[in-house]
Amino acid sequence: MTDQGKSFVALFSGINVGGNRIVKMAELRSFFEDLGFSDVATYVQSGNTVFRAKKGDAATLTKQIEAAFEKKWGFHSRIMVRDLGWFERLVSENPYPEVAADHTKLHAYVLEREPTADEVARLTEKCTGPERFEIKGDVLYLHAPDGLGKSVFAGLIPRTLKVPGTARNWRSVLALLEMAGQAGGA
Fold first, then answer.
1. 157 and 115 Cβ atoms separated by less than 8 Å
2. Once rounded to an integer, what is the mean pLDDT over residues 68-80?
3. Where are the domains of the chain?
């Protein structure tokens, strides 16, 4: 780890969706800076924040940021914090490279934990087409050929899998990886 710290990405769930739980990105950047993080940058309005931390791992930072966020904004948002190396693996392990160029058809669900075999089996029963998915560790890759908005299966994932998570389209995944890489410090 460098003197400047290690790069992380925080993925928020349930903010700025449908006009509810509004958090301005400028305020979110200031919030991270006030917590002592550096090189803070946000990506789109759905709560993606890249930052550097001098100490702490993803699990510790998740707890710290969630608690401070709830105190400041008065509501809970599930936050998934992952480091640069994790994002590099997410991209390199993509099981659907042939569709990666169409960012609207490929999504990555960042899961709180790796699902059990029984949880995956329940989800597999629900995947009756045209979508396909693969789970690698704490990531669910979803290829939705008709797009996420038209996918009935995508709506079933949280209820069926029962593992908390948050989804990002492939364009966002690649942008966050690039931002975290520019921040440096794997």
1. no
2. 92
3. 6-87+174-183, 92-168
Residue position matching structure tokens 């790796």:
114
100-115 CB burial, b ≥16 within 10 A, e <16: beeeebbbbbbbeeeb
Q: Name every residue whose Cβ is closer than 8 Å to that of residue 77 and which is 6 or more positions away in sequence.
A: 12, 13, 14, 15, 21, 47, 66, 69, 70
Which helix (H) or strand (E) is 37 found in, with range?
Answer: none
Can you read off the two tokens belonging to residue 179? 């931002």
pLDDT grade for 152, boundaries at 50, 70 and 90: very high
3 state DSSP class of 132: strand
The highest-level CATH class for domain 6-87+174-183 is: alpha beta
**Residue 19's pLDDT band (cuts 50, 70, 90):** low
Beta-strand (E) ranges in 4-149? 6-12, 38-43, 48-53, 79-83, 106-111, 132-136, 139-143
What sign does the CA torsion over 178, 77, 64, 115 have? negative
Cα dist from 141 to 39, 60, 179, whole Å:
29, 25, 21
Task: In whole angstroms, give the CA distance from residue 171 to residue 173.
Answer: 5
What is the number of alpha carbons within 13 Å of residue 35 lying toward its C-beta? 26
32 vs 103: CA distance, rounded Å = 28
pTM: 0.91
Which CATH code for domain 92-168? 3.30.70
